[in-house]
């Protein structure tokens, strides 16, 4: 299949330029939201700040701003840790029919990472082996486990499949490079925590103990504060 000209990753933008653009968009969305809240407060007694969240445009705006904040935090941490190694980070890589990949990370050593950043508020995430699905336990206002309806494990696999068929140059120029593995990470952010699981579901990468789920493809599940240490451990044990 030929590459789609409508969905080519822009690799001409530097890491810091991309980070700056995300930061500026964050500030703009925050200004729009708080400006709207202020107008309602002045012009009407029928809306409260909490009521504003019930308005679809405001809810979508806050959701987008939350995603930008996730990407900004993780991209900053990665650059602070690996910029001297020549890391290249492509944020918000659009994939037709499969949403957006939050971060595509590649090193001059040709090690590649696909990172999905996800949050479910103040909750704990568990993996059920029988159903091969992730479940959510809310810490406030909820009882028991509820299935995480969207299959983020499958999405990472599908995103990799599309990228290899349509943007194979992201993996490298040579035929050997194009076959290099893509390490897929589902990273839980903010107050979303990862619960305890059976020992056989974990993998040790250096000194990092992380959940490894094998479905259609292998995906590591870890928490935000583990991200840079995991990648350091991964790089340390790989041939250069």
Automatic annotation (TrEMBL):
Superkingdom as given in the UniProt entry: Bacteria
Stretches that traverse the bilayer: 33-62
Keywords per UniProt: Membrane, Transmembrane, Transmembrane helix
Protein name: NERD domain-containing protein
């Amino acid at each position: 299949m030929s590459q789609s000209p409508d969905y080519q990753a822009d690799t001409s933008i530097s890491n810091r330029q991309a980070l700056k653009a995300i930061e500026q968009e964050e500030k703009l969305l925050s200004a729009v939201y708080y400006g709207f809240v202020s107008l309602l407060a002045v012009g009407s007694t029928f809306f409260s700040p909490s009521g504003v969240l019930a308005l679809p445009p405001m809810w979508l705006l806050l959701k987008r701003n939350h995603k930008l904040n996730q990407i900004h935090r993780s991209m900053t941490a990665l650059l602070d840790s690996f910029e001297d190694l020549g890391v290249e980070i492509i944020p918000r890589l659009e994939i037709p029919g499969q949403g957006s990949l939050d971060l595509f990370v590649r090193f001059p050593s040709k090690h590649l990472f696909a990172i999905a950043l996800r949050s479910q508020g103040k909750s704990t995430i568990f993996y059920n082996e029988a159903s091969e699905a992730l479940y959510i336990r809310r810490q406030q206002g909820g009882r028991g486990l509820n299935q995480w309806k969207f299959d983020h494990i499958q999405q990472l696999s599908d995103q990799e499949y599309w990228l290899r068929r349509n943007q194979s140059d992201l993996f490298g120029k040579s035929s050997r490079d194009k076959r290099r593995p893509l390490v897929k990470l589902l990273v839980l952010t903010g107050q979303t925590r990862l619960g305890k699981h059976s020992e056989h579901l974990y993998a040790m990468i250096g000194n990092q103990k992380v959940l490894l789920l094998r479905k259609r493809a292998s995906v590591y599940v870890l928490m935000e504060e583990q991200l840079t240490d995991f990648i350091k451990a991964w790089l340390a044990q790989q041939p250069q």
